[in-house]
Design brief:
4-stranded mixed β-sheet; 13% helix
């Protein structure tokens, strides 16, 4: 099975841009065992934009999924909990509900992965499938940034339901490799 890094499609230049979110959601708590520190429902303000496009996957500063994408996630990973996030434009009457999935963090990055010079951006990803098992969507553990990995079948299910604004980067896979430090 093929795996990809999931991110927002950069061609959607009018996607929501968060304002003052850091006091409301601590990215360190977006993981199993810590997510109880995040409220079940939050309102986050977005930069006013009459042309905003509410895409189905927002990857930065953390992963947010539309209702249709979150429904697919729960079909494949029924144990995943989520927090409801309402994005609100205070100047126009635009709002949209998203879901913040609390995904497993799996240490599976393998040798052969390539980074930029300061190791802040993953350029080429290689993952070890042994720790992944049958998990269809998860995040890479021990990373400076959030990297969400998605298996092809769940990605196809999202796209068949009309999801838009999803960008992907193919990952190479290996079995039994040690983590790349």
């Amino acid at each position: 099975m093929n795996y990809f890094l999931l991110h927002s499609d950069p061609r959607y230049v009018d996607s929501p841009e968060f304002l003052n979110w850091s006091g409301k959601i601590d990215p360190r708590n977006i993981r199993p065992g810590c997510s109880h520190k995040i409220a079940r429902r939050q309102i986050l303000n977005i930069r006013p934009n009459p042309h905003v496009v509410f895409i189905d996957a927002i990857s930065s500063p953390f992963l947010l999924l539309s209702k249709k994408c979150m429904e697919v996630v729960t079909l494949y990973e029924p144990q995943v909990i989520s927090k409801q996030i309402i994005l609100l434009d205070m100047e126009t009457p635009q709002r949209e509900t998203y879901y913040l999935p609390i995904l497993k963090q799996i240490p599976c990055l393998a040798a052969g992965s390539e980074w930029n010079l300061d190791k802040s951006v993953l350029i080429k990803g290689v993952i070890n499938l042994e720790p992944v098992g049958d998990t269809s969507i998860f995040q890479l553990a021990d990373m400076k940034s959030t990297y969400t990995v998605i298996r092809m079948d769940i990605l196809e299910s999202m796209l068949k339901r009309g999801a838009r604004g999803i960008g992907i980067m193919p990952l190479q896979t290996v079995k039994g490799e040690n983590k790349d430090g």
